[in-house]
Amino acid sequence: MEPQLRAKVSLKNPDHFLGLGFGSGLIPFMPGTFGSLAAIPILILLSYVSIEWYLLVTFVVCLSGVRFCGKTSEALELHDHGSIVWDEIAGMLVTFLFLPLTWINILIGFVLFRFFDILKPWPISFFDKHVHGGTGIMLDDLIAGAFACIFMQLMLWIDFI
């Protein structure tokens, strides 16, 4: 992140700390990828809880992300700056809904999520361009996560993974 932008956010501010994915969004190259990687320890921890708890945590992460991403975006005075990666964390949680957490699933799910998040096929691109603020920052990644989840479910169904 450029120094003039870095001066606008503080890791001591809870909204910024979380919006920046525990600081992973400050890595100067591929912040979205590192934000997605930051979700893996959370996924591993959630693999020990019931699906009801997983759903609850995912819901809270998604809902609170609207605030964290919106506040961080406001501080930076930029919409969806690359360093804002809480949306990637939420998208990764959505990717693994109702899936067994194995290392191969983590690898495939990660690649699929990044694929959809980066390429933004329709309708992801529509929401990315037309919905703004914290909701817009979150929504495209949540849809990318849903696409990745559907692909993962199909691969499990056909016994590909």
Automatic annotation (TrEMBL):
Reactions catalysed: a 1,2-diacyl-sn-glycero-3-phospho-(1'-sn-glycero-3'-phosphate) + H2O = a 1,2-diacyl-sn-glycero-3-phospho-(1'-sn-glycerol) + phosphate
UniProt organism field: Agaribacter flavus
EC number: 3.1.3.27
Pathway participation: Phospholipid metabolism; phosphatidylglycerol biosynthesis; phosphatidylglycerol from CDP-diacylglycerol: step 2/2
Bilayer disposition of the protein: Multi-pass membrane protein
Superkingdom in the source lineage: Bacteria
Cellular compartment(s): Cell inner membrane
Primary role: Lipid phosphatase which dephosphorylates phosphatidylglycerophosphate (PGP) to phosphatidylglycerol (PG).
Pfam family for this entry, one: PgpA
Protein name: Phosphatidylglycerophosphatase A
Assigned keywords, A-Z: Cell inner membrane, Cell membrane, Hydrolase, Lipid degradation, Lipid metabolism, Magnesium, Membrane, Metal-binding, Phospholipid degradation, Phospholipid metabolism, Transmembrane, Transmembrane helix
Transmembrane region(s): 20-46, 53-70, 90-116, 137-158
Lipid metabolism among keywords: yes
Ranges for domain YutG/PgpA: 19-155
Cofactor(s) needed by this chain: Mg(2+)
InterPro entries reported for this sequence: PgpA, PgpA-like_sf, YutG/PgpA
